[in-house]
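Work Package 4 report. The design task specified in the project plan requires that, given a folded chain encoded as structure tokens, an amino acid be chosen for each position. We show below one input record used in the internal validation round.
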């Protein structure tokens, strides 16, 4: 190796053996890196293959979940429809029961009023008959007193 100085620039003149030595050094440094890179590349390929399999499984599961969700939505729709129908039926029955309760309440009130009127009439009739008996007794007793 020869050095030539020209101003601030230093030129190196390398011989063929110098270049061969540099080549061997670079080769010695590059080969382990190449090997490591090859191993890394192989590991990445293996992991990528495994990742693809896992991704396929995830996609299958996602498809299955979508189907299940669709089924749940259908079932929920059917349930909602059934609840609406049952609610309508129950509401009609409740209205019918309310009308019957109102009718029974009116009949009970009417029966109470009739009972009160009948009892009142019975009391007045009993009182009137009692008054008549007392009067008859008094009338019957009056002539006996005068004799």
């Amino acid at each position: 190796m020869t050095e030539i100085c020209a101003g601030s620039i230093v030129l190196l003149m390398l011989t063929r053996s110098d270049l061969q030595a540099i080549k061997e050094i670079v080769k010695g440094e590059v080969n382990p890196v190449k090997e490591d890179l090859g191993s890394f590349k192989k590991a990445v390929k293996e992991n990528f293959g495994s990742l693809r399999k896992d991704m396929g499984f995830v996609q299958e599961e996602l498809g299955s979940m979508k189907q299940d969700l669709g089924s749940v939505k259908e079932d929920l729709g059917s349930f909602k429809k059934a609840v609406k129908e049952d609610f309508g039926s129950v509401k009609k029955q409740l209205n019918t029961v309310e009308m019957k309760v109102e009718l029974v309440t009116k009949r009970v009130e009417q029966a109470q009023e009739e009972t009160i009127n009948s009892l009142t009439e019975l009391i007045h009739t009993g009182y009137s008959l009692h008054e008549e008996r007392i009067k008859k007794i008094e009338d019957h007793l009056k002539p006996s007193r005068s004799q």
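The mean pLDDT is 85. Validation will be extended to a larger panel in the next phase.
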